[in-house]
């Protein structure tokens, strides 16, 4: 299972949220991999340029191997970050695969923003993108208002409900991945 997201700041609130969801998935017995925000600094996606740098190749291969994904984006001005959107655009490189795009994969989604409006609209955008890429978004998604919830350096946050939501998202993706493996 692959987790992607966060912001350019190492240990950002959205990266910490992603780590909580991935940890819960790992506890269900799936192998997890994390590509945090600082590793998502990629050239703008362009289908006309076939060459990919090392980070783009790592992302594409990680998605290709994954039986499930967890994507967490910060919400900026009512939408997902350009960093996360550009990373998701690279999934276009899987269009010719036997399992194209996110076909058959469960995708857990969460948005972390300073305010409810951006958190909710960012989550909706992530769901729309996931569906366009043929992914199955989990029934539960997370909209987390960072004005009210602060994540700590461990696997916790000031709001236990946010932690439970993120853990359930990770568990749902793991369960789907394990079912597909059998």
TrEMBL record:
Domain NADPH-dependent FMN reductase-like: 2-139
Stored PANTHER family: CHROMATE REDUCTASE (PTHR30543), NAD(P)H-DEPENDENT FMN REDUCTASE LOT6 (PTHR30543:SF21)
Identification of the protein by name: NAD(P)H-dependent oxidoreductase
UniProt organism field: Amycolatopsis rubida
Source taxonomy: Bacteria, Bacillati, Actinomycetota, Actinomycetes, Pseudonocardiales
